[in-house]
TrEMBL record:
Role: Catalyzes the dehydration of the S-form of NAD(P)HX at the expense of ADP, which is converted to AMP. Together with NAD(P)HX epimerase, which catalyzes the epimerization of the S- and R-forms, the enzyme allows the repair of both epimers of NAD(P)HX, a damaged form of NAD(P)H that is a result of enzymatic or heat-dependent hydration. Catalyzes the epimerization of the S- and R-forms of NAD(P)HX, a damaged form of NAD(P)H that is a result of enzymatic or heat-dependent hydration. This is a prerequisite for the S-specific NAD(P)H-hydrate dehydratase to allow the repair of both epimers of NAD(P)HX.
Record's protein name: Bifunctional NAD(P)H-hydrate repair enzyme
Pfam families: Carb_kinase, YjeF_N
Recorded superkingdom: Bacteria
Residues that coordinate or bind AMP: K406, D407, A408, Y409, T410, G436
UniProt gene name: nnr
EC numbers for this chain: 4.2.1.136, 5.1.99.6
Record bears the keyword Magnesium: no
Cofactor comment text: Binds 1 potassium ion per subunit.
Length: 491
């Protein structure tokens, strides 16, 4: 099953359950977590033992982790200096125990200048943990600003200090190059506003009771390689008709490339037959670039303007590059009225945002794939990503369709379970024109093969990201184009 994302309060309960059921003391669990962090960071990055490491430790349990990490690294021969960020007079019990195991810890309490760290190469942040609320204030906020301005390599233990696990960073927050989180990433890691604080993140298994975590009441999940269990093997005794007939409606004058990308996306994902409807100007382009697909043309030279009977097709994918002409709106309206399984993207979404009557035609066999701006045009502007997710959930409940909200961590909400999935595959090289057209084709191709709308969305989004990662390894993230993604689709 997909891994659940849980809140800070639920993580605290998971800690307590593990300690009681294993059983293990809190100090020993802290020791286990600290060893796991050290193993993870040393495996991930190369730290020369001559390099100087500074670890900033708060007065709570995250600080206790930091002191334990200091001792473990010192025992392994690393040059490490620990600093106690004493934002309160009393240390937590486990923090105090690990503090007492060290010598020569410099105390920072806001009464003198912060350390310059001129000879320091790496900073490890352990000031505040996952239970932090609100925003940093006073001299602690000044210290975090000081650390951020030093231009050092910063790595955070569990959560960048000053960031709420379940929300958006406010005030001064540590800007980490990498964050090593315990057992599960926090919801905050998937919010675009927090990207500058978290950097890249990696989960570190510290042995919390997984069965307990999976049974926690949460609608939030990570979309990861468990998605492969949803993929059905192809049967030896099958033919092209077994895997459905896709109709792609895409392209207008100057945007026939969108037709090509969506068409190839459907084919590469396993659709048995693909027919593409394009304006007359796209005929030669489609026939020469995608010989595996059939092509039908609209009577209009430059736009798609004539409604079509979809009864002979399994599914429809509509929107990439079609434009927003009133004639094209009539085509979309006609498609929605026929209630075929339909993937709606790009200009089709823009047409829906301009006409409430089209919204009312959405049905449970629809999958919408908007990026943030397209979604905002439909539901209105949101001040934060959390507000946008709430609107996404409300939209899904009201219209009973799947919404794939595209972003660095694409959010997919199921109308059946209400579960929200954050995709973990992909890379920044996919932020390029045409990438979404490929995804439209992929999800449409999966629907044609009989997958449910939610499974088609989950499989399509995840493997779209995996293909992008593979392409980046060959092309590099800066030089990737959408066509490269097509070359690496592997289901």
């Amino acid at each position: 099953m997909f891994n659940k994302i849980i809140t800070a309060s639920q993580m605290k309960l998971a800690d307590a359950f593990t300690m009681q059921s294993e059983p293990i003391s809190s100090i020993d669990l802290m020791e286990r977590a600290s060893h796991a962090f050290v193993d993870a960071i040393l495996h991930s990055i190369s730290i020369d033992q001559t390099k100087e490491i500074a670890i900033f430790c708060g007065s709570g349990n995250n600080g206790g982790d930091g002191f334990a990490v200091t001792r473990i690294l010192q025992e392994r021969g690393y040059n490490v200096n620990a600093y106690l960020v004493q934002f309160r007079t009393d240390l937590s019990q486990d923090c105090q125990k690990n503090f007492n195991r060290l010598t020569n810890v410099e105390v920072i309490d806001g009464t003198k200048d912060f350390p310059s760290l001129e000879g320091t190469d790496i900073i490890i942040d352990a000031i505040f943990g996952y239970g932090f609320k609100g925003k940093t204030r006073g001299w602690v906020a000044d210290l975090i600003q000081h650390i951020n301005e030093l231009d050092k390599l910063v790595y955070a233990i569990d959560t960048p200090s000053g960031l709420e696990s379940d929300g958006i960073g406010k005030g001064q927050v540590i800007k980490a190059k990498e964050t090593y989180c315990f057992q599960r990433p926090k919801l905050a890691f998937f919010l675009p506003e927090n990207g500058e604080f978290i950097g890249d993140w990696k989960s570190v298994n510290i042995g919390l009771n997984e069965q307990y975590i999976q049974e926690i009441d949460s609608k939030l999940f990570m979309l990861n390689d468990h998605v492969k269990t949803l993929v059905q093997p192809r049967q030896r005794q099958s033919h092209k008709g077994t895997y459905g007939h896709v109709l792609i409606i895409a392209g207008a004058y100057g945007k026939i490339g969108a037709s090509v990308l969506a068409t190839k996306g459907a084919l590469r994902t396993g659709a048995g037959l693909v027919t593409t409807l394009t304006p007359r100007c796209g005929y030669q382009i489609l026939q020469s670039t995608v010989p595996e697909a059939m092509c039908i043309t609209d009577e209009n030279e430059k736009i798609i303007a004539t409604p079509i009977d979809t009864s002979r097709f399994s599914v429809v994918g509509i929107g990439p590059g079609i434009g927003v002409e009133k004639e094209t709106k009539k085509v979309l309206k006609n498609i929605l009225k026929q209630h075929r399984p339909t993937v709606i993207d790009a200009d089709a979404l823009n047409l829906i945002s301009s006409d409430e009557k089209l919204l009312k035609l959405l049905h449970p066999n629809c999958v919408l794939t908007p990026h943030i701006k397209e979604f905002d045009r439909i539901v209105g502007q949101s001040k934060t990503s959390l507000e946008r997710f709430e609107k996404q959930r409300k939209f899904v409940e009201e219209h009973e369709c799947v919404v794939v909200l595209k972003d660095a961590y694409t959010s997919i909400i199921s109308p059946i379970t209400g579960n929200q999935y954050f995709n973990t595959s992909g890379c920044s090289g996919m932020a390029t024109g045409g990438s979404g057209d490929v995804l439209t084709g992929m999800i449409t191709g999966l629907l044609a093969q009989g997958y449910s709308p939610i499974d088609a969305a989950l499989i399509g989004v995840y493997y779209h990201g995996v293909a992008g990662q593979a392409a980046a390894e060959i092309r590099g993230e800066n030089g990737m184009i959408a066509s490269d993604i097509l070359d690496f689709i592997r289901l």
